[in-house]
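Page 47, continued from p. 46.
Same chain as before, 495 aa.
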Amino acid sequence: MTRFTRWAALTAAAALLTAGCTGGGSSGDDGRSGGTALDWGRCKASGDTPAPGGDWQCATLRVPLDWSKPDGSTIGLALIRAKATGDDRLGSLLFNFGGPGGSGVSMMPSYAASVSALRERYDLVSWDPRGVAASEGVRCRDDKDIQAAESSVDGTPDTPAEERTFLEDAAGFGKGCQKAAGKLMAHVSTTDTARDMDRIRQVLGDDRLNYFGISYGTELGGVYAHLFPKKVGRMTLDAVVDPSADTFGHAKNQTRGFQTALDNYLKSTGRDPEQGSRKIAGLLDRIDSEPLPTSSPGRELTQTLALTGIVLPLYSKSSWPVLTSALEAAEEGDGSELLALADGYNERDDSGGYGTTTHSQRVISCLDDKQRPTLEETKRLLPEFEEISPVFGSFLGWDTAGWCHDWPVPGQYDTPEVSAPGAKPVLVVGNTGDPATPYEGARRMADELGEGVGVVLTWKGEGHGAYGSGSDCVDSTVNAYLLDGTVPEDGKVCS
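Result:
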């Protein structure tokens, strides 16, 4: 998510697949518009991951590096699509799955089954935004240094020495990003990507942008609507980022969201949430003092890795039993299960290689955010974070100081502008049990989009996101909007 924390608002955070995408032979449908042609071809395999199959086509779109210099240098954006299966085609439906930093090229094929009803009338399209994966993706640190930082940097520093290491590591990461990204470092903002989206719309031949944004993708959709209100088609925003919150506001929102999800998880196991949270906080304190052994050679479970391992199953109610098992093992002195969960979130494979989602996330979010909280400002607010959550508060509070510390390029805004007067109605979907993007963000997004534009649909459920999560009410309402243009009553509730 933008400007938030290391726990990204990313759909299916543990299941990022990698499917290569390069332009190949002509598909016979170039998608020509405005003098630009896309050469759609078969998608290729990437590493150990096979190609996504014959239904999928890939292409590369050239866009300006700097949108203020449209005739200057260009960069390539990797796109993927599957054509509509029915005869009554409405156009293209563009997806962004969150992050920032998530690869749409990798995610789209695995998500297609969840939106099969939409594919009957839409071409399903996604892309790797600039600075992500196959679209000039940024790698700020090599695998060896990432693993070294996991074991040596305390995400909740307790001593002056640990604080220095924490800030030095943050500054070093930024320098690595600058070295890797070069000129791109200043041109990967959400606003840049929103302009890329309008170019994608043009080359796909659509008069208006039909869009499905999830998590950070909701902020991206809101920024697009502000920049191009007359080009908004049928737009759905699910798992909504609060566009009115600043750096500390986002961190507090996420602290509340994960604590709420943890409370609901504890209730489901018959435990008192307050007592259960205190027990987990005690476990984390012990791990902070003495990391747990694991079955992974040469690796221990640190407090930060343990927190990340706890976070991941909270994204989906179906994963709660996994959390129970991992916590029980940790209480017995074995950190292996929590480490495996953290590795899943951090995209670490069995050979010790790491994905780059976090790298891209940080480069994008720190370019967006002009706020740079100091160590002193953060320390003054830590008690507020810890009061919200004894489990997540300290980590998420500290992260406000470290995430963009000594960043090499200045940020662009305090909060994104998403007002979209004159745009068609935008369907904003909020889930009351969402840990990463708490429900309140949906109403605030709708309010900021403007009267007559933002329309809120509420789901009283659990997990990150609502569509495709088991509610026939949510799915049928979203499908009716995207397929038939039926706008529900603002405030409709699905339980």
